[in-house]
Design goal:
Layout: E1 5-10, E2 13-16, H1 36-41, E3 52-57, H2 63-71, E4 89-95, E5 100-105, H3 121-128, E6 131-138, H4 145-162, E7 167-172, H5 180-200, E8 209-213, H6 220-230, H7 234-251, E9 255-260, E10 265-268, E11 274-276
Parallel strand pairs: 1-9, 3-5, 3-6, 6-7, 7-8
Antiparallel strand pairs: 2-4, 4-5, 9-10, 10-11
Length: 278
């Protein structure tokens, strides 16, 4: 019997964003460094019912590069021309068939954990209350781990206090510059350090954090973001698997896939729902 593999394509993404989200390579933007108040006030004023993914981390960790490579088709080499993020950029990601959410890209200088005494509490609550996933990006090559871990710990405590259902993802980024042993060591070290901090707060059994090594120069960032997006589709994954299994069985095929050409999010049967399309 001859087996075939079928692929079902779904429409590409529709992205609504500010005109400042993807500057031309080589362009420069002149702006003064804003205060924490200005970073929050206008940017959190508009909320809707869409689920939110929060993208946080220290400056130069690679947050905006991740966003542009995955959702704006920017090449990895072009990201070197991106200017630092000075305000919260909110991007509407709309997939006509599956996904519909907002991605909030936070400036690295904004430390949410230190704002409760300086800002209106409702402003901070507005950030986390509708968030489904918080992604914290760490650069293991350039950043001092202690600073990044402290920021991560404070952000997690603040977010969990407001929204206990939020899920936490840590991207140990720019992993293309380190070998496999170093990747394992980085995950082990950061997992140990953040779990020790959570243990001191009595939250080690309540908060689950996933650590992933990523790079915009290979498939790892697409795989990591696919896993994040999967968490927004938990209610429909089982029906999709049933449909694909029925399709394979009735057509005597070996496998069937449903995937997005952009940004390479792949649905797959056999308990491997999301994988990267290489």
């Amino acid at each position: 019997m001859t087996h075939e593999v079928a692929t079902l394509e779904v429409p590409e993404w529709s992205i609504a964003a500010d005109t400042t989200l993807k500057p031309e390579p080589g362009s420069r933007q002149l702006s003064a460094s804003p205060s924490s108040a200005s970073l929050l006030s206008a940017n959190t004023s508009t909320c809707n019912n869409k689920p939110k993914i929060l993208l946080m981390g220290l400056s130069k960790s690679g947050k905006t590069s991740i966003r542009n490579v995955i959702f704006h088709k920017m090449s990895a080499n072009e990201t070197q021309f991106l200017d630092p993020t000075h305000k919260i950029d909110k991007v509407d990601i709309s997939n006509k068939s599956f996904l519909d959410f907002q991605l909030w890209d936070f400036p690295g200088k904004l430390d949410i954990s230190h704002l409760r005494d300086k800002e209106d509490t409702s402003t901070i609550e507005k950030i986390f209350e509708e968030a489904r996933v918080l992604i914290f990006v760490i650069d293991p090559v350039e950043e001092k781990h202690s600073i990044a871990i402290d920021r991560l710990h404070g952000t997690i405590l603040e977010a969990y206090k407001i929204n206990p259902k939020i899920k936490f993802e840590v991207f140990i980024h720019k992993s293309d510059s380190i070998n496999e042993d170093q990747k394992i060591d980085n995950i082990r070290e950061m997992t140990h350090r953040i779990n020790r901090k959570l243990m001191s707060a009595g939250l080690q059994d309540r908060i689950l954090i996933s650590f992933r090594t990523t790079s915009i120069y290979d498939h790892s960032i697409f795989e990591a973001m696919s896993i994040v997006c999967q968490q927004l589709l938990e209610n429909i994954l089982s029906p999709f698997e049933n449909i694909l299994n029925a399709f394979v069985s009735s057509n005597k095929m070996e496998k069937a896939f449903i995937f997005d050409l952009h940004p390479k999010v792949l649905f797959k049967l056999m308990n491997e729902i999301f994988r990267v399309l290489n």
